[in-house]
Write a structure and sequence with these properties.
Order of helices and strands: HHHHHHHHHHHHHHH
Radius of gyration: 21 Å
Distance between the termini: 32 Å
Number of helices: 15
Number of strands: 0
Strand content: under 5%
C-alpha cells in the first residue's frame, strides 16, 4: 500500500489509507479550482488588479476562519470537521453551477476558503487523535504526499476540462465532494461510534494588550524566521495567480497547459525529511543558497521561451526552495521549545504565511495590470528572494539565533 513504509506499526493502515484518499481528492478539487480561479475571474471582471484584490480578500477570510478554529481549541472531533468541509465544498460547486454574478462568485470563494481551513484543521485533529509520538511525523508526511499529489493533478484535470467548458469543472468538483461525503459519512461515523465525544475548549477572551505583548515577544530576534514564512506565502500567492495565465498564454500546450502548475507542485510530494537531513553547508548559508537558486530559477522565466525549459525551471524553483523550508521550520520549533507558549510560534508562522498569500495575490495582480506582462511578476519575485538571502545571512549573524544557525544539525 502506498505510504505504508512511512508508518509505524501502531498506526491503523486502513484508516490512514482512507484518509489519504480523502486528502488526495480534496486537494485535487482545490488544485483544480486554484488553477481555474484567475482565468475565471479575469474573464468575469476584466481587471488583473481587481482579480488580485478579490483573491487576496479570500485569503484574509481564511485567516479569520483559522483564528476562530484556533480559539475553539484542539479537542474538537475531527470527523465532524471533515464532513462539514466536504459539505461546504459541495455547496461551493453547486453555487458556481447556477450563478455567474460576481457577488455569488465572491460568496462561493469564501465557502471554498472555509472548506480549506476546516479540512486542514480536521487533518491536524486526525493526526493528534489517531497518532502517537512515534507516528505524528510519519502521518504528516503521508498526508503531505497525497495533498501534493492532488495539487499536482488538479491543474492538469482543470486544463483538460477548460477545452470543453469551464462549468464542467464545477460539476466534477461536486461529484468529488459527494464521493468524499459518502466516504466520510460511512467510514468516519463507524470509526467514532464507540468514542466518547470530547468537549470543545470554550472561546478565549481576546485582549488587544495581551496580543501586542505576545507579538512583541515573538518578533524580538525572530523577525528573519517570520519573514521567511511571509516570503513562502508571497511565492505561492504570486505563482498560483500568474502560473495559470502564463500556462495558457506562453506554453501553447492546449489541454496540457495545467502541467506548469503540476511542475510547481510536484516537488512537494518528496518527503520533507529528505531535505531536513540534507546539510551541505552550515544552515544560514544553506537557506541563503536555497533562496538564491530559487531566485535564479524564477529569473529564467523572463528569458526562457521553450515550454520544456519553463517546466524545468518551475520544478527546480520549488525543489531548491524545499531545502530551505524544513530548516526554517526546525529553527522555529527550536525557538518554540524555549518559549512558554509554543502554540504562538506555530500560529505566528501560519499567520505570516497567510498574509504572504494575500500580498502575493495583490502584488501579482498589480504587476500584471501595470506591466501587461506575465513574466514581470517572476522578475520581482526573484529579486525578493535575492534580498531575502542577503537579509537572512546578515540578520542571522547579528541576533540570538546565530548559535543555532552556526552549528551542524
Amino acid at each position: 500500500m502506498i505510504g505504508a513504509p512511512f508508518l509505524h506499526e501502531d498506526t491503523n493502515r486502513f484508516d490512514t489509507f482512507l484518509f489519504s484518499i480523502l486528502t488526495a481528492l480534496f486537494s485535487l478539487a482545490t488544485g483544480a479550482v486554484l488553477y481555474l480561479l484567475p482565468l475565471y475571474l479575469l474573464g468575469l471582471v476584466g481587471s488583473a488588479a481587481l482579480v488580485g484584490l478579490i483573491i487576496g480578500g479570500t485569503y484574509l477570510w481564511n485567516i479569520a476562519v483559522d483564528l476562530l478554529l484556533t480559539k475553539l481549541g484542539k479537542k474538537s472531533r475531527y470527523s465532524l470537521i471533515i464532513k462539514v468541509s466536504f459539505l461546504i465544498l459541495l455547496l461551493f460547486a453547486s453555487v458556481n453551477t447556477i450563478h455567474v454574478d460576481i457577488r455569488f462568485v465572491i460568496l462561493s470563494l469564501l465557502m471554498l476558503g472555509t472548506a480549506q481551513e476546516l479540512f486542514q484543521f480536521g487533518t491536524y485533529q486526525y493526526i493528534a487523535q489517531k497518532g502517537n509520538d512515534k507516528t505524528y511525523s510519519r502521518l504528516f508526511s503521508v498526508f503531505s504526499f497525497f495533498s501534493a499529489l492532488g495539487m499536482s493533478l488538479g491543474p492538469i484535470v482543470s486544463s483538460f476540462v477548460l477545452t470543453i467548458h469551464y462549468r464542467f469543472m464545477f460539476d466534477i468538483i461536486g461529484y468529488i465532494a459527494l464521493i468524499c461525503v459518502g466516504i466520510s459519512l460511512t467510514w468516519l461515523d463507524r470509526q467514532n461510534q464507540n468514542q466518547q465525544l470530547e468537549l470543545v475548549k470554550p472561546l478565549a477572551r481576546w485582549s488587544l494588550v495581551k496580543e501586542w505583548h505576545v507579538w512583541k515577544h515573538l518578533l524580538r530576534g525572530d523577525v528573519t524566521l517570520f519573514f521567511a514564512f511571509l516570503l513562502f506565502g508571497v511565492f505561492w500567492g504570486m505563482v498560483w495567480f500568474v502560473g495559470p495565465l502564463l500556462s495558457l498564454d506562453t506554453l501553447h500546450l492546449g489541454a496540457w497547459a495545467g502541467v506548469l502548475m503540476g511542475a510547481f507542485s510536484l516537488p512537494r510530494m518528496l518527503p520533507r525529511s529528505w531535505f531536513k537531513t540534507l546539510h551541505i553547508i552550515s544552515p544560514p548559508y544553506q537557506i541563503a543558497l536555497s533562496f538564491l537558486c530559487t531566485g535564479f530559477s524564477l529569473l529564467l522565466f523572463t528569458i526562457v521561451t521553450n515550454p520544456i525549459l519553463i517546466l524545468l525551471c518551475a520544478f527546480v524553483a520549488v525543489a531548491v526552495l524545499q531545502i530551505a523550508y524544513p530548516t526554517v521550520a526546525t529553527l522555529l520549533e527550536e525557538k518554540a521549545k524555549q518559549s512558554q507558549d509554543q502554540s504562538q510560534y506555530e500560529g505566528g508562522s501560519l499567520l505570516f504565511r497567510n498574509v504572504g498569500y494575500i500580498l502575493g495575490s495583490l502584488i501579482a495582480g498589480a504587476l500584471v495590470a501595470q506591466s501587461y506582462s506575465l513574466t514581470y511578476p517572476f522578475l520581482v519575485l526573484s529579486l525578493l528572494f535575492f534580498i531575502a538571502a542577503l537579509l537572512f545571512v546578515y540578520h542571522a549573524k547579528t541576533t540570538s539565533i546565530v548559535e543555532w544557525l552556526s552549528r551542524k544539525i
